[in-house]
Design goal:
The protein is α+β, with helices and mostly antiparallel strands. About 15% of the residues lie in helices and about 30% in strands. A hairpin with a 2-residue loop joins strand 2 (about 35-40) and strand 3 (about 45).
């Protein structure tokens, strides 16, 4: 009888701890996202195509397509916006075939190579609560 009670207590203890962990991870409020709509300029002119990618020190980064007027809107997964905080930024743009066909080449890189990696770009974006309208300024010169 004593063994049965200990087993029940052990299972009950495991259940209570597991329920507590699940409830902590399933709160109604996830990470704080803020809307980000900005522009990318290359040598003072709007970059007409490409992708912008951001990476915070921890958590999910954000990304967005660069439109023909240089504008972009960031999303984190399926949610619009980016995590509040500091982000390293990368910009990737090619002038090649955009059909998505497997045999299509990427074409010529339109931005200097250093901007294609958030760790080497030197670009930083600060996302604050509320509306964010950053201008990402790239230069061809090293």
């Amino acid at each position: 009888m004593i063994r049965k009670r200990q087993s029940v207590r052990n299972y009950l203890s495991i259940f209570v701890h597991a329920a507590a962990l699940v409830s902590i991870g399933c709160g109604a409020q996830g990470p704080q996202l803020a809307p980000v709509q900005g522009r990318v300029l290359l040598d003072g002119q709007p970059l007409k195509t490409g992708q912008i990618l951001t990476q915070p020190p921890a958590g999910r980064g954000a990304n967005g397509a660069i439109q023909s007027d240089g504008s972009f809107q960031l999303s984190s997964g399926r949610e619009p916006g980016a995590l509040v905080g500091t982000h390293s930024v990368a910009v990737v743009a090619y002038d090649g075939d955009t059909s998505g066909a497997p045999e299509a080449s990427q074409g010529k890189l339109l931005v200097p190579q250093r901007y294609t990696n958030a760790d080497t770009s030197g670009l930083i974006m600060e996302v604050t609560p509320g509306e964010n309208t950053p201008t990402i300024e790239l230069t061809s010169a090293k």
